[in-house]
Amino acid sequence: MPKKNQPNDQRAYRATLVLDLRGVTDAPEAVVERLKDTFKALAAKVGDVRNLGQRDFARVVDRRFPAGIYVQFEVKGPASLPVAFREKVRLDKTVNRVLFQAA
Fold first, then answer.
1. Strand, coil or helix: what is 56?
2. Which of 6, 48, 94, 95 is deepest in the core (most CB within 10 A)?
3. Would the pTM of this model clear 0.70, i.e. be above it?
4. CA–CA separation, 13 and 101 (whole Å)
């Protein structure tokens, strides 16, 4: 049973996602809204969302995909959020890379 003085299990994260929108008819804003809903489904509170625009990769893995759209999310959620989010978007072709940082 949790004690009253025990800190809440909410942690702050900065999630940076690289989006691959090749062949997608949705606008980037619609994809970002869908990702916000994914965070909310995992009991996370989404704060600031910043679209950093398209940037070239330092190391190109696929020559047909030399740049991606970077989006940063400021979220608060349980400690299991990074693993659960990666598992949730694992098969989503619009999310190319995911990076979580403790904020």
1. strand
2. 95
3. yes
4. 6
